[in-house]
Specification:
Elements: H1 3-16, E1 32-34, E2 46-57, E3 63-75, H2 81-97, E4 104-116, E5 120-134
Parallel strand pairs: 1-2
Antiparallel strand pairs: 2-3, 3-5, 4-5
Length: 138
């Protein structure tokens, strides 16, 4: 299994931990998907993550890698300031708890935006980069 796949599976597990039972403020971890466009008309709240770009530095061995990941939540059940702020805090908490062996997670930015495609939704987005080392076999 590649290190990238292992990291993404561990990230997915960390995001699925976001629930009231695990001392978070929301249950947004109940619906985690990978690279999935949500159909807004159905009113589905979802936490989606995607790995978008990976940079490799071949100066050192093992290779240094920097993986860009976008985590976003479509919240169609409640567009309030309080709930959208709680979701953002939960995402940041989960990312801060997420650990990468021989690596680190860098939080880059977050944003909130209103989307109106048949129904009013708030999208909360968090961008991170995951820095790690990997031995590449030839």
């Amino acid at each position: 299994m590649s290190k990238r796949l292992e990291i993404l599976q561990d990230l997915e597990a960390a995001l699925k931990e976001i629930s009231l039972v695990n001392n978070y403020q929301t249950n947004i971890g109940n619906n985690v998907v990978y690279w999935h466009d949500t159909d807004f008309e159905y009113g589905e709240s979802v936490l989606e993550f995607r790995d978008t770009l990976e940079e490799t530095s071949q100066v050192n061995y093992p290779y240094e890698k920097l993986l860009a990941v976008e985590i976003s939540v479509i919240n169609s059940t409640n567009t309030s300031l309080v709930e959208s702020s709680q979701i953002l805090e939960d995402l940041e908490k989960a990312v801060n708890k997420f650990k990468v062996q021989d690596g680190r997670v860098l939080m880059l930015s977050n944003e909130k935006m209103l989307e109106t495609k048949g129904k009013k939704n708030i999208r909360i987005k968090l961008k991170i980069k995951i820095q790690y080392r990997e031995l590449l076999e030839l």
